[in-house]
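Per your request, structure below.
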């Protein structure tokens, strides 16, 4: 029997999944830590994690999967890796981290990206990078260079979280075009590393690891890693991608016009385009998709909302009884009417938001009446506000010429809520297809494509099934649109 091992390096946990190559069936899966992984916030707007912790979590998850599956380690044919995007890991010549990783929801680098955008100019940034440098990896490195020069001077390589895990598995530093594009270090117009951006910041080209393809032999598991993990030395690593491109792959979203979504701590809508296109205000961002090539462009247009599931979690832990479950919260929320009788929540309380042009506006509640509203209204307003923020981003994608008729998502996190999925489908006027997959399973299937076990993505995802399709609530379309328009009006007032 052939098996594929997929890893998903998230900010909450690291998940490992073992997939039977022939059937696509998940043979075993586990994650660590069992409680949410800590994020260090040494100052407001900061978010850091120790890369060594990711490795420890990965070891625990691997041991658990191998123990429960009882397979022979030699039966694992290939490994795939997915990771939390836009992070910065700096290592010295000994390949050990020089500092904690600055992760995706850290806001400190916003001024560095904005200054680069103004200095390099709109034509270069949007025409070559397809984005403003914003709060991405390159800008985070600029912060390190200015504030921690003693650490910056020791940098041998910079990596994204998935690059770091691949390095721990193999002992070699490498990266991908997709990875560099999410860090604002890939020039799409010239099809090369963005030398002009690196020169502007004063970064030497030598700190960028060698490039490997998203699919194909990237590295092999070293003897040291094999002994730590219980794997076989020499096992090939054949796929690597950031979590949102990988989520799209997991849902078989690879071609122009196809849309994927997630709603965990943060929320994402990710659409595939074949045009080097961009939002002039960089409210949504364009990156290389997993199957992008210069001759056959495949770009992922990404809407990210930092404050999605984390808002629902905050409500659970701070406003609800200790014994309540998310399912019970959903049941309570549907007791309130559509639009929550004038109550609206803007869910932007988890750092600088890209769709707000990198402003950190915080989460705000509007229209609260002490005589009208109760817990059910608050809970419904949370889910409606998150759905409306998604729809706002979808509207931007449509303005860019993308068609959004169907959205695919894994049946997890906020997509477990019938209220959320119905609201999103209704305000976006799009069907939602829910599938039984996740990032680690997608990474495993990606490894199968990269190893040549599957001839193509069609074969790799031939066993992927739609669990449920949610259609827009046409009977209540006016109520949904009125509530959404009220929410949009509040958002526009906030941005003035």
């Amino acid at each position: 029997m052939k098996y594929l091992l997929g890893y998903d390096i998230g900010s909450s946990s690291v998940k490992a999944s073992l997939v039977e190559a022939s059937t696509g069936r998940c043979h075993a899966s586990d994650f660590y830590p069992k409680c949410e992984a800590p994020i260090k916030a040494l100052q407001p707007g900061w978010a850091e994690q120790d890369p060594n912790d990711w490795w420890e979590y990965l070891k625990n998850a691997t041991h658990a999967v191998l123990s429960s599956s009882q397979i022979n380690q030699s039966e694992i044919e290939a490994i795939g890796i997915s990771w939390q995007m836009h992070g910065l890991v700096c290592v010295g010549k000994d390949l050990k981290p020089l500092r904690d990783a600055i992760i995706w929801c850290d806001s400190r680098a916003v001024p560095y990206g904005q200054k680069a955008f103004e200095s390099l100019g709109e034509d270069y940034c949007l025409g070559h990078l397809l984005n403003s440098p914003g709060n991405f990896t390159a800008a985070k490195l600029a912060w390190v260079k200015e504030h921690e020069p003693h650490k910056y001077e020791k940098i041998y390589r910079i990596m994204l979280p998935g690059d770091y895990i691949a390095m721990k598995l193999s002992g070699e530093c490498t990266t991908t075009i997709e990875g560099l594009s999410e860090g604002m270090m890939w020039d799409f117009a010239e099809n090369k590393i963005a030398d002009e951006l690196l020169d502007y910041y004063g970064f030497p080209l030598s700190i960028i690891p060698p490039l490997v393809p998203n699919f194909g032999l990237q590295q092999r598991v070293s003897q040291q890693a094999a002994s730590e993990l219980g794997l076989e030395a020499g096992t090939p690593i054949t796929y690597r991608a950031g979590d949102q491109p990988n989520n799209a792959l997991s849902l078989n979203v690879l071609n122009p016009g196809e849309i994927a979504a997630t709603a965990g701590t943060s929320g994402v809508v990710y659409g595939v385009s074949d045009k080097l296109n961009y939002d002039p205000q960089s409210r949504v961002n364009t990156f290389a998709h997993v199957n992008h090539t210069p001759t056959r462009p495949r770009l992922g247009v990404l809407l990210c909302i930092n404050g999605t599931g984390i808002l629902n979690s905050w409500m659970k832990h701070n406003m609800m009884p200790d014994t309540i479950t998310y399912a019970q919260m959903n049941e309570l929320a549907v007791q309130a009417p559509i639009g929550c009788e004038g109550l609206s929540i803007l869910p932007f309380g988890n750092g600088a938001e890209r769709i707000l042009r990198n402003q950190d506006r915080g989460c705000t509640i509007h229209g609260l009446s002490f005589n009208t509203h109760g817990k059910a209204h608050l809970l419904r307003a949370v889910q409606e506000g998150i759905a409306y923020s998604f729809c706002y981003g979808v509207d931007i994608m449509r303005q860019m010429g993308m068609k959004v008729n169907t959205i695919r998502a894994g049946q997890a996190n906020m997509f477990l809520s019938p209220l959320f999925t119905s609201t999103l489908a209704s305000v976006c006027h799009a069907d939602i297809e829910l599938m039984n997959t996740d990032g680690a399973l997608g990474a495993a299937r990606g490894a199968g494509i990269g190893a040549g076990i599957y001839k193509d993505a069609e074969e790799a995802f031939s066993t992927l099934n739609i669990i449920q399709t949610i259609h827009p609530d046409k009977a209540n379309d006016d109520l949904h649109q009125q509530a959404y328009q009220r929410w949009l009006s509040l958002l526009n007032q906030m941005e003035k």
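The chain has a mean pLDDT of 95.

Regards,
D.
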